[in-house]
């Protein structure tokens, strides 16, 4: 399994926005379909709400890649 850390400048960010920001999907329609088809796990649980707000440290699993939501602030 591959792990990628995605630095986000503003939190909270919605799941659908994160999928586009991380270039997992090209647009909102593709993101909506990915989520609706049960292909996205948030912190290990299936997530069906594209409006779900993410916070620093949340993990998003899509396929064989685990994305970690990270804050750019130090």
Description:
With 74 residues, the protein is of the alpha+beta class. The chain has a single domain (2-71), classed as Structural Genomics Hypothetical 15.5 Kd Protein In mrcA-pckA Intergenic Region, Chain A (Roll), CATH 3.10.290. Helices cover 22% and strands 36% of the residues. The chain is built from two helices and seven strands; from the N terminus they run ββααβββββ. The protein has helices at 15-21, 28-36, and strands spanning 2-8, 13-14, 40-42, 45-46, 53-54, 59-62, 65-71. It has a five-stranded mixed β-sheet, with no helix packed on it. Strand 6 (59-62) and strand 7 form a beta hairpin. It is globular. The mean pLDDT is 94.
Question: How is this structure best summarized?
Answer:
With 74 residues, the chain is α+β, with helices and mostly antiparallel strands. It has helices spanning 15-21, 28-36, and strands spanning 2-8, 13-14, 40-42, 45-46, 53-54, 59-62, 65-71.
Record keyword descriptors for this entry.
74 residues, five-stranded mixed β-sheet, alpha+beta, Structural Genomics Hypothetical 15.5 Kd Protein In mrcA-pckA Intergenic Region, Chain A, two-stranded antiparallel ribbon
CATH superfamily: RNA-binding S4 domain
Discrete helix count: 2
CATH hierarchy: architecture: Roll
Beta-strand percent range: 35-45%
Shape: globular
What about the largest sheet?
5 strands, mixed
Q: Which value, in Å, is the CA radius of gyration?
A: 11 Å
Distance between the termini: 28 Å
Order of helices and strands: EEHHEEEEE
Give the helix proportion (percent range): 10-25%
CATH topology: Structural Genomics Hypothetical 15.5 Kd Protein In mrcA-pckA Intergenic Region, Chain A
Low-confidence stretches: none
Task: Strand order, main sheet: write it out.
Answer: 1-7-6-3-4
In total, the number of strands is: 7
Briefly note the structural class of the backbone.
Answer: alpha+beta
């Amino acid at each position: 399994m591959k792990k990628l850390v995605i630095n986000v400048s503003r939190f909270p960010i919605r799941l659908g926005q994160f999928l586009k920001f991380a270039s997992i999907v090209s647009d909102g329609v593709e993101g909506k379909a990915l989520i609706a088809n049960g292909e996205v796990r948030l912190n290990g649980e299936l997530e069906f709400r594209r409006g779900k707000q993410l916070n620093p440290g949340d993990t998003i699993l899509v396929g064989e890649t685990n994305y970690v939501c990270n804050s750019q602030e130090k």
